[in-house]
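Project outcomes to date are best conveyed with an example. Our students and postdoctoral researchers have been running inverse folding experiments weekly, and each run begins with a structure described purely in tokens. The record below, which covers 233 residues, was selected by the lab manager from last quarter's runs and is presented without edits.
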């Protein structure tokens, strides 16, 4: 199977260790991963802000760059939601590659049939299901199934887990007070679990939550779940 990594602009620029973690996981399972250098932003922020003409070249570039692969793996629920939900509606010829674009847990569980990736992570962890993964992709228990198979992990339930963290891309900028209130509730819930780490499928949401926890001096790290699955020691 030919698999390409679409790393996303947020991960590429701010959280490169997440992309590296995806490669380590899949190579450990015996797969070769390509990283096409012509990839750019998926255009989610532009389209959500009303800049459709500016988004279309990004969609066409995605198709041109990644259409030859059997699967495209993306460590971001929100970007996969953009590709699978929005792309075919705006560029119908993107439907084929959009259907072969997967969030990491979908690729591992549904396509490769793997739930135990051989990871070890001896920490107390709670999991936040991000909005796009929860409501658009309907990831369900896939990420939790992968985390439950990690050796020595203590996975703790998160009260109000399905409530938004308040990020929402430009929502956090345009509705700062509401976003801050939502974040405060989420941080309180995370702290109440006694976890050392909060994990999620989107680093954008983890940046929001991690920032709130840092300002509280909560001592809880925000870590993309791919980085947990990549750990073996």
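After processing, the design step wrote out the following sequence:
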């Amino acid at each position: 199977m030919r698999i390409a990594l679409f790393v996303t602009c947020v991960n590429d620029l701010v959280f490169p260790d997440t992309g590296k973690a995806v490669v380590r996981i899949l190579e450990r399972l015996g797969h070769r991963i390509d990283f096409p250098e012509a990839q750019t932003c998926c255009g989610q922020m532009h389209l959500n802000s009303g800049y459709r003409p500016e988004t279309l070249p990004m969609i066409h570039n995605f198709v041109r760059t990644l259409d030859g692969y059997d699967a495209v793996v993306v460590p971001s629920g929100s970007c996969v939601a953009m590709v699978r939900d929005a792309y075919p509606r705006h560029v119908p010829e993107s439907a084929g590659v959009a259907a072969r674009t997967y969030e990491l847990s979908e690729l591992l569980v549904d396509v490769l049939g793997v739930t135990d990736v051989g990871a070890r992570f001896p920490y107390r962890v709670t999991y936040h299901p991000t909005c796009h993964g929860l409501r658009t992709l309907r990831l369900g228990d896939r990420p939790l199934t992968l985390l439950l198979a990690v050796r020595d992990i203590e996975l703790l339930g998160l009260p109000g887990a399905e409530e938004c963290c308040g990020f929402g891309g430009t929502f956090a900028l345009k509705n700062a007070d509401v976003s801050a209130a939502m974040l405060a509730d989420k941080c309180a819930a995370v702290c109440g679990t006694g976890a050392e780490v909060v994990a999620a499928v989107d680093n954008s949401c983890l940046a929001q939550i991690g920032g709130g926890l840092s300002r509280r001096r909560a001592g809880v790290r925000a870590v993309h779940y791919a980085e947990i699955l990549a750990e073996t020691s």
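The CA atoms of residues 9 and 162 lie 25 Å apart. Strands lie at 3-5, 33-34, 71-74, 101-103, 124-127, 154-156, 197-200, 221-224. The training component of this project remains on track.
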